[in-house]
Design brief:
Length: about 100
Amino acid sequence: MTGFSPERRINGSESSAFDSIDLYSFGIREGISETIITTGLESPNAAPIGIIVKNGRTFVRLFKGTHTWENVSKEKYLAANVVYDPLLLVRSTFFRSGSLRI
């Protein structure tokens, strides 16, 4: 299992410090907030993954060997999609990304 903390890019370059993102405005609170994480330009993938906010620290847990972990390791980014339809979370669990219809 690998922790991944988001680092935003400013003007296409990596910043050395984390920029402030108002996660609260997206419904992300202390604890675990389930989202659909999308990754990969060459090998697109969607997976239900919790964004964890604990003691002021924000991170996700990715498991080595998964498509998500492989894509993030290679491309160094992910997109968290906050959805309000629980069926989308189920579909992202059981269906390949190519067949996931939003």
